[in-house]
Amino acid sequence: MLALKIEDIRDFMSQMLKKDTFDAFEARDVKITTFTDFDISCDINKDFYPDPKEAPAHCLWSDIKPFVFEIVKGKSLPRFMKIVFAADTSLMESLSPNASVFYINISFENSALTLTTGCGMKTFTLDKSAELKWDEYIKEFLNTKKVSVSTLI
Q1: CA neighbor of 116 nearest in space, from 108, 129, 125, 107
Q2: How far apart are CA 68 and CA 38, in angstroms?
Q3: pLDDT-derived band of residue 152, with 50, 70 and 90 as boundaries?
Q4: Pairing of strands 26-33, 3-6
């Protein structure tokens, strides 16, 4: 697990909400507290699609982002925000065939923005190589996007 503090909150939020930086990730959960609480599960309603078998399980961030932007824009910062991203299937399988999910948890609370990583495996294992690959992937991803971070753990 990687735990990072985002140093430039304004730039990171711009990348997340206005640019395509995170668009390829699946959105798994969004919780925002402004004047009220907003909770978006990001699970696809398969009955909405003509062929439910072809519907994905989760929304992409690019699909949810405009709604999140509408909720958080304004003069006041959210009191709380948590967004959970997951790697898409092709990225996940390229990093580890034994992984069931790779997560990025982004949390804004008390004027601090943090990013943590996590992974779930299909079977129990003490081998941490998949988790380490994911952490390295995220470090390189953030470096490529010029996101300034400091390590929390």
Answers
A1: 107
A2: 9
A3: low
A4: unpaired
How many C-beta atoms lie closer than 10 Å to residue 55's C-beta?
Answer: 13
User: For residues 79 and 33, is the Cβ–Cβ distance under 8 A?
Assistant: yes
**pLDDT score of 153 more than 60:** no
> Residue 69 carries which side chain, given as an amino acid letter?
F
- Are residues 5 and 147 in contact, defined by beta-carbon separation less than 8 angstroms? no
* 25: nearest Cα among 38, 42, 13, 49: 42
Residue 88: Cβ within 10 Å count? 15
Cα separation, 103 vs 82, whole angstroms? 13
Task: Tell me the per-residue pLDDT of 89-132, one tens digit each, with 9 for 90 and over.
Answer: 999 999 999 999 999 999 999 999 999 999 999 998 888 999 99
Query: What is the DSSP code (8-state) at residue 26?
Result: E
CB 118 within 8 A of CB 103: yes
Beta carbons within 10 angstroms of residue 30's beta carbon = 23
4 membership: H or E segment, kind and range: strand 3-6
Dihedral, 78, 84, 116, 2 alpha carbons, nearest 10: -160
Query: Which token pair is 96?
Result: 């580890």
CB-count exposure of residue 113 (10 Å: 0-12, 13-18, 19+): buried
